Amino acid sequence: MSNLRIPGSPQPWEGEGLGKPERIASALDIMLAGPVGAAAFNNEFGRPNLGGYFRTFEERIPGPDGAEVRGYHKPIMLAGGLGSIRLAHVEKAAVEPGARLVTESRQGYGYALRRGMQEASGDLIVLAEPDSTFLAKDVLKLLAYEGDFDMVLGTRTTRELIWAEANMGIFLRLGNWVVAKLLEFLFNGPSLSDCGCTLRLIHAERARSLRGHLTVGGSHFLPEMVILGLLARMRIVEVPINYRGRLGTSKITGTFRTAWRVGWRMISLILSYRMRSWLGRIPPIPGTDAPHRAEAQRK
Question: What top-level class would CATH report for the domain 109-298?
Answer without folding.
Answer: alpha beta
